[in-house]
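Collaborator request, handled under Task 6.
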Amino acid sequence: MTEVIVAGAGPTGLTLACELALAGVDVLVVERLPYRIEQIKGGTIQARTQELLELRGLLEPMQARAISREPAGGHFAMLPVPLDGTAWDTAHPYPLSIPQWEVEEVLEERAAELGVKVLRETAVTAVEQADDGVVVTADGRRIEARYLVACDGAHSTVRKLLGVPFPGRPGTYTAVLADVRLSSVSDLVPKTLGHISTLTREVGDHWVMLAPVGGDRYRFTGGVAGEAESAKDRPVTSEEIAEQLRIVYGEQTVLAAVDNSSRFGDATRQVEHYRAGNVFFAGDAAHIHPPFGGQGLNLGVQDAFNLGWKLAAALRGRASTDLLDTYHAERHPAGAWVLHITQAQRVFANPRPSADAIELREVFIDLIRQPEANRHLAGQMSGLSHSYDLPGDHPLVGHRVAGLDPSLFRTGRPVLVDLAGILPDDLGATRAQPVAGLPHAILVRPDGYAAWASDTDPDLDALMGDPCWSLMR
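Structure tokens returned to the collaborator:
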């Protein structure tokens, strides 16, 4: 019997597996695909996700695999105003561009180092729940576990087997995503990977975002205005991509090859509860949304960082199982907000906007040129402004902690940091030099958020009553 089964070896599932294994949890990953699909797809790592990966030493190998690009801020609805991440206290103000399969490779290598077993070509076909665990049937094998986490994507088999509803808004369009090679290009084709507003071009009803990723390789995203979401199941052909390129970029832009391709829509859905008995949902299995602003991969990875330490604490008896309910309480609103902000961007990103939408677009562009409005949106899109509603009087509680040495968090355990010598020696706090903007003492959760903080006269009862405190002993 294993302790946790993770269904799905994408970024969310592999991140969760690493977090669990780091805490000594016996975890098994099952994946229906025989091998990793080398497609760029979710290729943006936002600032907050970069911070989390850095805590575990995972950011540097991803930076080494990143696509070379000009330093450029994020965007809201592809509007031509970069969002200024430098207005936030972060060492990573710019999104990192990296093919999703490279992200998965780094994560799977780390998972293997931690002893995680990944079973490929192992599709889940049945899930049975009991009071004390689950039994998963996969590739004809019956595997018992204490918990199952569904990280198996938008069409989650686990979600369907359990009959968990996936309510929301159906899609309004379909588009093509492909990794392509071009044998020749016109002057209209982008030469460098800059801000997204410089990569998108529209001609009539046709629109294409063409991102150069090295040599003759490009990431193609494109569609035709008004094409129904029902068309998303139709196979992508080389001919339609070649035609789109010709219409949007001219006769000189010639398709040489399509390395891989798929269709996607802009449906918005979210499970009502992130937990169903001993089964949890994370990543696209829990929420899907329009692909505006590069949010999807990041939202799932952050789900995993939130859930991992809580599952480990419950399994090891270090915290009440009530702690597991905080996963839904904290991450469902986070997901709902991303759904909200991505849906709002439809108004400006519509390739056939109404006359009123065009006027509104101009007003909004002027608005986000204002520093405070730009900073607000930059925080929302990067995840840097996200916080949790946690008990405690100090204003930092529930917010991300910036400025501490990331290596303090390599073990995946909470860290109590004393920056002013105000805590008793027997608490085992890490002593550190003061950091501008941080309080005198902080208890930082494994996912980098402040669980407790104090400037003077620390409330030690509140500190030792926090669930994270028991994980330190």
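The cover message to the collaborator said: "The first helix runs from residue 11 to 22. The chain has 13 helices and 22 strands. Please let us know whether this matches your experimental observations."
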